[in-house]
Amino acid sequence: MNSKYIKAVTIGDGAVGKTSLLVTKYNGTFPFDYTPTVIDSHITQIIINDQSYDLCCWDTGGGEKYARLRPLSYLHINVFVICFSVSSRESYYKCETYWSAEVTKFFPSVPIILVGTKIDLREFDDNLNKSEFITYEEGIEMKDKINASAYIECSSLLNKNLNDLFEMITIVGNNDIESRIPRELLSNISKEYNNDKKKKCIIC
Fold it and tell me: Are 58 and 173 in contact (CB under 8 A)?
């Protein structure tokens, strides 16, 4: 059985749980030690209706300081996965004001999946103020605002809905869209990155 290759890129604010959901899916255990990510990738095999897919998910840094690096991971992308934490309204609002804007700037035709993470905090942690938490209905509203193909909530800590999420990524990403950053834009990004590296070396 020949596998189809699908590339997904997870984006969103730092510390919303992007790395945790990928590591938990691929390693089977929750990573309790938080390590900020710049760019990393994980690949796994997903089988749907007897068809095998090699799903490669790229994990990206969430800070604005990585804004010039992130687009380098968007080459040949099939689907974007925008993540926010249900315990953080700031990360929720930025799905529209920052992350969706970045996605549509580079690849307006690539589908988006919106993911609400850390639902274990909303359901089980009684020490937090739940009034500020994002509801499922608000997640659906944001999905419509950013024109995402789907919305799903999950918990990496409880390993809840992760299998459903990755099947959804595979299904939405299986649309034969092969997107590319224009050569001129990629060239500019690379130049800016190299200049930043030189500046950092000089400072060091």
Answer: no
- Tokens in use for 87? 């315990």
**d(Cα 62, Cα 12) in Å, to the nearest integer?**
5
For the stretch 72-82, pLDDT in tens is: 899 999 999 99
Whether residue 13 contacts residue 84, with contact meaning beta carbons closer than 8 Å, is answered with yes
Cα 154 → chain centroid? 13
Q: For the chain, what's the residue count?
A: 204
Whole-prediction pTM value?
0.84
- At 196, list the tokens: 């930043």
Please report where in the chains the tokens 């089977």 appear, as a residue: 28
CA distances in angstroms from 171 to 4, 52, 162, 195, listed in the order given: 11, 12, 14, 39
Sheet containing 4-12: which strands, arranged edge to edge? 39-48, 51-60, 4-12, 79-85, 112-117, 150-153
Instruction: Give the number of other Cβ atoms within 10 Å of residue 178's Cβ.
Output: 12
**Number of neighbouring beta carbons within 10 Å of residue 195:** 11
Q: Residue 4 carries which side chain, given as an amino acid letter?
A: K
